Amino acid sequence: MASKILIIGACGQIGTELTSKLREIHGTKNVIASDINTRNLELVNSGPFEIIDAKNFNAIKDCCLHYNIDTIYLMAALLSATGEKYPMEAWDLNMNSLFHVLNLAKAGTIKKVYWPSSIAVFGPTTPRKNTPQHTICEPTTVYGITKQVGERWCEYYHKKYNVDVRSLRYPGIISHKAMPGGGTTDYAVEIYHEAIKKGDYDCFLSENTSLPMMFMEDAIKATIDLMEAPSEVLTIRSSYNLSAISFTPNDIFESIKKHIPDFSISYKPDFRQAIADSWPSSIDDSFARKDWDWRHKHNLDSMTEIMLKELRKKYK
Ligand code: AKB
């Protein structure tokens, strides 16, 4: 029987592209997109769409029963920069939505859960280079705290109630369809848009701030590979470290300049600099590579080529 999937937060940066890919794999009518609002609706309205507030348990449950859902991808969250502006809202949304979905799995209403964590679970006391899977996690952002606590709950629900929950610690994700919203790594998407539109960019992080990043195609592949992996091979039920490339604003600037020689950049670090400084510069994802054979495809230059090509079409 075909899997019936609900994506909560389907209109966001990752949700939109995950919806398309899952519909390609499972069939359009078997993948229900949902969000609290209809921004980017044109990217997900090729199939069923429902308005769902991720904080509303009954709305999620009713939708699961109506469509006979067996798998939920919970993509709704307030990210690191927005979370610092609205700490209680971030806690409320990020934690309650997770409990709703875990409890539906515990009750047997659904069978499988995907929930994204983030490099934000790490903090200033974490080893910054090649950060291991198991290490000190003392996050200093509200978003990071919600992700760290969420990871503990995922592992707890798996061990205690046998809930099949799977998770990845996403790095910054770069894509050309929906814009990211409210993250610290957003600069690495904005810079491509501004390079095409204006030929210059004011960067909110400093020149040499190195952070772990990944092209969307790789992030979607990782998510689906993890969800399709046999349960027995998974040794991590909190959240897997996941890595592809690490670069600084200067590295991405130089990569864009290969295609747009007169592109210019200036640096005006704001409050997001402190968040970036608390995160790792590179990640050791050997558990993901060993357990379910994770491999990334894109490097900085291959990503730049695709980003510029696609955005040129968009803005022409
Ligand atoms: C953010 O910057 O908040 C996110 C993340 C790394 O989880 N992109």
TrEMBL record:
> Where is the NAD-dependent epimerase/dehydratase domain positioned along the sequence?
5-233
Question: Which domain of life does the UniProt lineage start with?
Answer: Bacteria
Q: Which Pfam families match?
A: Epimerase
Write out the similarity annotation: Belongs to the NAD(P)-dependent epimerase/dehydratase family.
Give the protein name, as stated in the record. Answer: NAD-dependent epimerase/dehydratase family protein
Q: Which organism's genome codes for this protein?
A: Winogradskyella alexanderae
